[in-house]
Amino acid sequence: MPAPGTIRALRAPAGPGVRYDGGVYGGFAVPVHYDPLLAKLITWGGDRNEAAARMTRALDELRVDGVKTSTAFHRRVMTHPAFLAGELHTGFLEEHPELMSPGTDPWLSEIAVLAAAVAHFRCLEETSLRAPQAGSSGRLSAWRRSARPGWRR
């Protein structure tokens, strides 16, 4: 389905056996009336499995933030046993309706881990800013008490 909006950020995949053809960029406003093909991603390899593995890696590297894409669908297809076996025909998607169900973003778990690490670091920093240092007079240095731009107190 068409998904108009503004592409906030774009990271194209690269590497051996990967070709990315796209005319969009971060900040590009996708209009309501457009060809839903914003970019084309092509991979090749010595055999079908190598090409599919490269495509899966390239899809994992591809980041398009701001508009909906079909990246998750293509990732599911690339790893499906019937696709890897070359069992393709015009009724492939009807025969495998599980491919059409919305999937989850594989980056979500990594984002959650990073968010937890940042929250933990901020908590440790808060604790260290309030606690007197061993061997000190119980007073924090002017630097540690001062407001630092971008840091929470």
| Whole-number mean pLDDT | 83
Level-1 CATH class name of the largest domain: Alpha Beta
- Taken in chain order, the helices and strands follow as EEEEEHEHHHHH
Biggest sheet, open or closed, and with what strands and sense?
2 strands, antiparallel
Assign the CATH topology of the largest domain.
D-amino Acid Aminotransferase, Chain A, domain 1
- Structural class call reads alpha+beta
Strand order of the largest sheet: 1-4
Instruction: Please give the CATH architecture of the largest domain.
Output: 2-Layer Sandwich
Number of domains: 2
Number of DSSP strand runs: 6
Helix tally equals 6
How would you describe the overall organization of this protein?
The longest helix has 24 residues, at 107-130. This protein folds into 2 domains: 5-103, D-amino Acid Aminotransferase, Chain A, domain 1 (2-Layer Sandwich); 109-145. It has helices at residues 48-61, 71-78, 81-84, 92-95, 107-130, 142-145; strands at residues 5-6, 9-11, 18-22, 29-30, 39-43, 63-65. 38% of the residues lie in helices and 13% in strands.
